Amino acid sequence: MEAYGALSIYLAVVLVVTATISLLAARVGPRRPDPVKAEAYESGYPTPPLLGRFSVKFYVVAMLFVIFDVETVAFYPWAIQVRHLGGYGLAVMGLFLLILAIGDAYVWRKGGFEWK
Fold it and tell me: Looking at CB atoms within 10 Å, which of 30, 68, 106, 113 has the fewest?
């Protein structure tokens, strides 16, 4: 139960800081109402009047960014434990990098990294 004491203190501090920052932003922040700012947005574009069709290339680039961003996150735990994992960990990460390189080469060959 002693471990929960520290956790509850941490949670209380986080809640107080979050509430304080939110209240300060609401009280001190600039208030400039504008009908354009009140419009609904999705993916950075206003939704009510669609301005035309989006190119599929936009979504492909977005998906590639998310995929490679998530794959990059996999390097952090490995980097923390690299000495403990030894040669086996190095081999497994090398295989992972090889798979990533093959995926990169495929997308590059198909023109997925070109923005036109």
Answer: 30
Rounded (10°) angle between helices 56-73 and 82-109: 170
Return the residue matching tokens 């492909």: 60
Q: What domains are there in the chain, each with its CATH number?
A: 52-116 (1.20.58.1610)
In angstroms, the first-to-last Cα distance of the chain is 59
Closest CA to 113 of 71, 73, 61: 61
How does pLDDT run across 35-59, given as a tens digit for each residue?
777 776 666 666 555 566 667 777 8
Cβ proximity of 39 and 46 under 8 Å: yes
For 9, the token pair is 């203190």
Type of residue found at 17: V
Three-state DSSP class for residue 37: coil
CA atoms of 53 and 34, how far apart (whole Å):
26
